[in-house]
Design goal:
It is globular and about 60 Å long. α3 packs across α10 and α7 runs antiparallel to α10. By secondary structure, it is mostly helical. It has eleven helices and no strands. It has one domain.
Length: about 270
């Protein structure tokens, strides 16, 4: 009898987990539909990272002022520019949550039998769907301009989940501020305020070893640093010695941000 009750409880827990996963992917699918009506935005947003690559890459490659471990600066900075494009598109994703509130869609989701954790996780992963399209465009443009990167197609496929993870963490930061400030204008302002500090205090443009001590501590706490580290390993160096730490930090950020945003979600409706 006791064993039967334990098996029944385990079955219910497994059923709940499957239901939550299904709910998360339902929200992701809902958000992905919007991408079909907004594909031109991806092309436009792809121009900025390529300009960064062409301007910064060519200037610093010419003068060789940054040690890049035997690689050209164009090679070194390409994964950082890819991460930048993902950050820039995901850091404003909290505006979508405010828009959903204003349009009434969020109220409909909240009354559905879906946990708030699943709602937030679904929203965060939705940013990854948009980021995949952005990353593909940027990667193609990087290869078109002739930056020599890895020739292993498997590594390029592995870039996709990393892009999704970077975008999900960035979206979680944006949703956190959307839950606190609750207006599109404020969320837009916070997004603009955060993008450059997150970008410049990471290892996207230069190695952490070049930074002063106080900036290194900030870089180590910056989630973009760990995303760039994985992308650089996949796209350039093949050094995966830190990948478990990098993935652990990014997943930790995602879980913590999702949990906190789940608690604060009701604030956005006030």
């Amino acid at each position: 009898m006791v064993c039967h009750q334990k098996d029944q409880a385990r079955g219910e827990e497994a059923g709940m987990m499957i239901s939550e996963v299904r709910n998360i992917f339902t929200i992701v699918e809902m958000e992905a539909r919007r991408l079909r009506h907004d594909y031109t935005d991806i092309i436009v947003r792809s121009l900025q990272p390529i300009l960064w690559l062409l301007v910064f890459g060519n200037v610093f490659s010419r003068y060789r002022v940054i040690p890049t471990g035997g690689y050209t600066y164009m090679q070194f900075v390409a994964p950082g520019i890819l991460a930048q494009s993902v950050l820039f598109i995901a850091i404003f994703f909290g505006i979508m949550l405010v828009w959903d509130r204003d349009s009434g869609n969020l109220s409909k989701i909240l009354v559905a039998p879906v946990s708030r954790f699943s709602i937030i996780m679904g929203k965060c992963l939705s940013a990854g769907v948009r980021a995949i399209a952005q990353a593909v465009v940027v990667l193609v443009l990087i290869l078109i301009i002739g930056v020599p990167l890895t020739t292993n197609p498997i590594y390029y496929l592995l870039v996709i989940p990393v892009v999704v993870l970077i975008a999900a963490v960035s979206a979680g930061i944006s949703i956190l501020f959307a839950s606190l400030f609750r207006t599109r204008e404020r969320v837009m302002g916070i997004g603009q305020l955060l993008t450059m500090p997150l970008f410049f205090t990471s290892n996207a443009l230069y190695p952490i070893e070049m930074m002063p001590d106080w900036l290194r501590y900030i870089a180590w706490g910056n989630p973009l640093t760990y995303g760039v580290d994985i992308l650089r390993a996949l796209m350039l160096t093949g050094d995966f010695s830190h990948i478990l730490v990098d993935l652990g930090v990014l997943l930790g950020y995602l879980i913590v941000l999702t949990s906190v945003c789940s608690i604060l979600l009701k604030r956005i409706m006030e």
